[in-house]
Amino acid sequence: MAQATAEALIRRYYDAFNVGDTQTMLACLADDVRHDVNQGKSRTGKKLFAEFCKHMARCYKERLSDIVIMASRDGKRAAAEFIVHGEYLVTDEGLPPAKGQRYELPAGTFFALSDGRIARITTYYNLADWTAQVVG
Fold first, then answer.
1. pLDDT per residue over 2-46, tens digit each?
2. What is the CATH number of the domain that holds 48?
3. pLDDT tens digits for 57-86?
């Protein structure tokens, strides 16, 4: 996969995220995608990724801005940096109570790409920053 093709795949994934189109996000993924969540356990496969997306949509309303995508020349690795604009809708297990709090924080994701699909998604953000914003 070429660098430009990798960047286009990641752009398609994030465009779908921003409009809540889980099916298009899933179409960007390898069947055995590994999803590494910040402060959480890894999940493998589209089914678990879809369940994660459903959970997130229930607890959070998020939109990403200022997305910068970078890809290796061979198209096997990519990264994105962005700002998360969110609203905490429903209390997520182990986290502070949700009361519609709004938050904004920088985040980033690393990707491994294979056969024209995303094979790994590893996302990072500062959980302490998020917690401070929602506890306020």
1. 999 999 999 999 999 999 999 999 999 999 999 998 878 899 999
2. 3.10.450.50
3. 999 999 999 999 999 999 999 999 999 999
Q: Which of 25, 28, 17 is nearest to 117 (CA)?
A: 28
Q: Show the domain range for 49.
A: 3-135
d(Cα 10, Cα 16) in Å, to the nearest integer? 10
The rounded distance, in Å, linking the Cα atoms of 81 and 108 is 4
Q: How is 14-78 classified by DSSP, letter by letter? A: HHHHHTT-HHHHHHTEEEEEEEE-TTS-EEESHHHHHHHHHHHHHHEEEEEEEEEEEE-TTSSEE
